[in-house]
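Dear Dr. L.,

I hope this message finds you well. Following up on our conversation about the binding site, I have prepared a predicted three-dimensional model of the protein together with 2-phosphoglycolic acid. For your records, I am including the exact sequence and ligand specification that went into the calculation, followed by the structure tokens. Please feel free to forward this to your student if that is useful.
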Amino acid sequence: MSRAPLVVGNQKLYLGPQDARDFARWLAGVAGDGSRAFDVAVCPSFIGLAGVCDVLRGTSVGCGAQNVHREASGAYTGQASIEELLELGIGYVIVGHSEVRSQLGETDGDVNAKVKMCLARDLTPIACVGETRADRDAGRSRDVIGTQVRALLAGVDAGAVGRLVIAYEPLWAIKSGLDDRDVTPATPEQAEDAHAFIRAVAAGLYDERAARAVRVIYGGSVDADNATGFLAQPSVDGLLIGSASVKRPSFARILESVQAQVGAGA
Ligand code: PGA
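The resulting structure of the complex is given below.
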């Protein structure tokens, strides 16, 4: 089994187009020469995407979108289509992020349609799942996660499963802003438990081989101090990082610690 670890910066609406381009230039300098033992990508806001993709073209840092509309074109005000994103040269699309689900009404059906659309166009979907605090307190975490995973994989061929990434992002662990100190991440053990469950759901739908090929990454209050604790877990294949990914010192420390860990054969 070899699943190259993946570290993704979800820049949300934190950086404007100029700042996002400057950040990408800096990132290409520290991580873009291809010497890393893991994959790195950043997902700027739509308005920053073209500039960031330009800067990252030809480097080993991937560029991704934070969402995509499920229709290829049409009367959809305020949206971005997969054709537009492909034209920019992106490699990844985040779908099903809890903020998009709750703020823009994205449904499990939308997530499934977007996953299949991305796979059909050779883009890597990063499909997010996760339970609320109320779900967890009520003992419903597995029901919620299992339902989301089965929905996003509906109609996806076994041969294509290994090309998608599932991000486990418990809603209760996601920061609400850059300076939010009140939210605490899942423990590495909680993440491991959810990731192993996600892989078991995939194994039930396909087989062990297909399930082993899916990368399952963790997101929610990841920072430079806790990143390697998650990655040390056998079922955690990478990280989806929000607030700590737009601060250069913290993102640099995360990348250094992941390199030390992965490079050491952890
Ligand atoms: P956070 O966000 O790292 O700021 O908690 C993660 C995410 O929402 O992807």
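In brief: The chain has a mean pLDDT of 95.

With kind regards,
A. P.
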